[in-house]
Amino acid sequence: MSHPHRTLIASRRAFLAGTGMTALTALTLAACGANSRSSSSASASAKAGGNLTILTSATDVGWDPAKSQSMPMTSLGLVHRRLTTWKLAPGKPVELAPDLATDTGKASDDGRTWTFTLKKGLKLSDGTAITSAHIKHGVERSFAPALSGGLGYHKSLLAGAEGYQGPYSGAHLSSIETPDESTIVFHLARAFGDWPWIVAQPAFSPVPEGDDPATYSHAPIASGPYQIDQYKQGSSITLKRNPHWSKDTDSIRLALPDTFTFSLGQDETTSAQRLIADSGEDRNAFGADRVSAAQLAQVSANESAKSRLATSPEGGPLAFLAINVQRVSDVNVRKAIAHAVDKAAVVAALGGELGAQAASTYITPGIPGRQSYDLYPHDAAKAKELLTGKTVPALVLLTDNGAASKAMAEAVGQSLKEAGLTVTIEPVEPDTFTERATKGDGSTYDLAIANWNPDYPSANANIQPLFASSEIGSGGSNYARYSKPEVDAAIAQAQANLEAKAAQAQWAALDRKIAEEVPVVPLAYRRNSFLHGSGVAGFFVESYPAYPSYQVIGVSAS
Q1: In the predicted model, is pLDDT for residue 454 greater than 50?
Q2: Does domain 318-526 sit in CATH 3.10.105.10?
């Protein structure tokens, strides 16, 4: 990320905040045979014990679940469990699995009430039995203004939660019931079929009452297999085993290493060089930062390093060109822009086939129900035909000033100029980009380069944030300023569907319907690559999530 104070997350927002090739870490979130599934994915080759080092350019790791945007299989998942979680395996799509709960939830007929029962024998790191009250407190504290910044899907879904400010003043949510110590019931404002995925998010980790919001991030009570041992600000964080975690209650986390060491503030290029060299303690280390295009070239020239590179096979986060429909209102001009863009040039700008693959859909690879189509293949002649007789004012193409974003903007700008359009590229600081693209009236840009990484594996997390009218301005991510009542209604219908397969079909149809109006041009699915030492086992990366699972990585037995 481009911010001076960096924390470790793997989420859509991290991808938005820093779109350079090395900007995103996998901590809290293939061509040329680079995907190392075959050489590094076998957990059977890993042993229990040892220390696993994680090299990261981030200067801190936050462990407060209320403030986190992390995916379940990254750093936070080592310390905190949730009601449900994700099950990942090489070559298989991600699955929803029970974590603290006995199952993935039971819904009422109207889809507005969800009930979860906790497993028996669960304990916090202080030896206290985990109860439903701990889950409720964990969720409620995420509403506290002092703990903002975490994933907040639940905040708009829980009934009666509007205006709630958290539990520290003594107020509580009546929409979360705890009829006994092992049962928790959520009452939603509307039906929401993805609720079992939502309760896999950080806020649904158990937190006992009496916590100090000011210090909890670096001194949390653990429910996972590890707890904080040492915290050296800006330098390192060490995790040790939580003696009260029981494998009998956890089918997801292998918990192989005795300790994890997070080595903070590491230069990304230097870390890559250390992992390529593969000597000493670096053999039992991996990089949390994505390998850059320049580093990929070095790795590809080194057979040993190449065998230790894990790359998402079908791409990952979506890089796209948003067209501000309030300013570019002619759909045929938008179609011309879509046909004009040479996506091969965009892929080249991202480092070639190891860095990305051309995109054509809004739903990203690895998301259940995705259907492939390509409505606007590169066709410069078609673009010029659609523009015939039209007067199109000069277009402002807004981008953040990260290297990859600027490279994409230049590739897109060149394509549009070749189609006869006048384009001015405006690279700005990430905070300025966010201010101009997600707030205000959108009057300062016509086009914008952006990236999107869905927070969980449902097409809802691809479609709703980018195209619902509720996401225009006020910090929302509808960069295209696209607003259609019928699309909003279709989004609501798909969200309310409790049948996963039927909902997936609705999302796929909506993906294509929106594309026909071209508010956004999909550019590329960003391939994520991560490098590890020769002593690391169980290391793999799938299309979604396009990050390694910390839950199964260990030190090699060889």
Answers
A1: yes
A2: yes
